[in-house]
Design brief:
A hairpin with a 5-residue loop joins strand 6 and strand 7. By secondary structure, the protein is mainly beta. The chain has a single domain, classed as TolB, C-terminal domain (Neuraminidase, 6 Propeller), CATH 2.120.10. Strands 1-19-18-17-16 form a five-stranded mixed β-sheet, with no helix packed on it. Helix content is about 5%, strand content about 40%.
Length: about 375
């Protein structure tokens, strides 16, 4: 697989910018060049400890197209994907990929949605945004309607939603017409009142994309990133300030800019050789930090990391590889990627999963067969 093929697995989104100062830099992790080892194409396969394959069951009610988001809750998968009508729907699957039920249904009634924008699951409730109605709809995990709340005009521009605690969530946005628009909001999930706003300071005409994955969980903490900023921050649940917890010094210092125009900043950044953080995922003591040029797999327990260059030559690998830019979710157990059934079968036929002596760590939960629905691949990576 060449560089273009690898990058086709995902879309590189562009950061916007905001101004928000951390409240502390205690316990700061600095990812520096001296602590990171570059690995070759042939080593990409060797960092995998085990792979679990979860084919998503295909039924007349569950015919999936492209997957937009997954969340794992209580050993079940909630998946937002295009349905047979090409509109986003939310589906619930068991730990081994058996289809359980769909969340809600299409329509114009109070308990129905017209077009789903995003979702997240918390306390046995599924929170869904309707782009057409500018509403938040709430269902139980069986798909039964509970309640709905009006949102503002920016609901349609929500990029992601993440639980801060049992009663509050953090919303991220991908629209910034002026410095008055929110980059992040902390929202009360009972009243949907905005408790705190992190605004932008850069101006742009119209909307433009955000990052691959700008927020994530580290245990009970919410981590987030800022545009044109190679750091990861932790949000304080009491006062909503943010503390810098990781700095990617490896990728260079971001210069200061006199302009507040996004296009001018973007052009200036393109003239530098600075690599920008475009997403991160946390799994236990491992942190995956992605950029369009490469990824760092950082081990907090050892204070060391591996640099995995994008565009690797997969013809040199002897079995199914770990592709950092394909990762779309993580939890304490591992990292998760999604592949179409066709691409997955092709890679399995060409590479296989594990060498014969390593089959004890291979966990294939159900046969792929002729299933056309996407396949979730769970990676557990080795320690250094």
């Amino acid at each position: 697989m060449n560089r273009k093929t690898l990058l086709a697995l995902t879309t590189m989104f562009v950061f916007v910018a905001c101004n928000f100062k951390p409240d502390s830099e205690q316990s700061l992790i600095v990812v520096s060049e001296k602590d990171v080892t570059s690995v070759k194409d042939t080593i990409i396969q060797d960092i995998i400890d085990s792979i679990s394959i979860i084919p998503l069951e295909e039924t007349p009610e569950c015919l999936l197209g492209n997957i937009g988001k997954i969340q794992k809750v209580n050993d079940e998968f909630f998946v937002m994907a295009e349905g047979s009508n090409r509109l986003p729907m939310i589906y619930r699957f068991s730990h081994d990929g058996r289809f359980l039920n769909r969340i809600g249904r299409l329509g114009n009634a109070r308990d129905e949605y017209v077009r789903i924008g995003n979702f997240f699951v918390l306390n046995e409730k599924v929170y869904v945004t309707d782009l057409n109605k500018n509403k938040f709809l709430i269902y139980n995990v069986k798909g039964e309607f509970i309640d709905s709340h009006d949102g503002n005009e920016n609901v349609k521009f929500l990029h992601d939603m993440l639980a801060l605690d049992n009663d509050r969530a953090v919303f991220s946005y991908n629209i910034n017409f002026s410095e008055n628009n929110a980059l992040y909001e902390v929202v009360d999930l009972k009243s949907f009142e905005v408790l705190n706003t992190i605004p932008t300071t850069y101006k742009a005409e119209g909307s433009f994309p955000y990052s691959l994955k700008e927020m994530g969980h580290d245990g009970d903490h919410v981590l987030l990133s800022l545009p044109f900023d190679n750091n990861v921050y932790k949000m304080n649940k009491d006062n909503f300030t943010i503390e810098k917890v990781l700095s990617l010094g490896l990728w260079g210092d971001i210069p200061s800019f006199d302009s507040d125009d996004f296009e001018e900043i973007q052009e200036a950044m393109e003239e530098t050789d600075i690599n920008l953080l475009c997403g991160f995922f946390v799994s236990g003591h491992k942190i995956l930090l992605n950029s369009i040029q490469g990824s760092v797999l950082w081990y907090r327990d050892s204070g060391k990391g591996l640099y995995l260059e994008n565009g690797m030559d997969l013809s040199k690998t002897k079995r199914f590889p770990f592709l950092p830019l394909s990762v779309c979710y993580s939890d304490a157990e591992g990292f998760y990627s999604v592949f179409s059934a066709e691409i997955f079968r092709s890679m399995i036929q060409e590479k296989g999963l594990m060498n014969q002596e390593e089959t004890h760590s291979q966990k294939v939960t159900r046969p792929i067969g002729e299933n056309k629905n996407p396949v979730i691949v769970k990676y557990i990576l080795k320690s250094l």
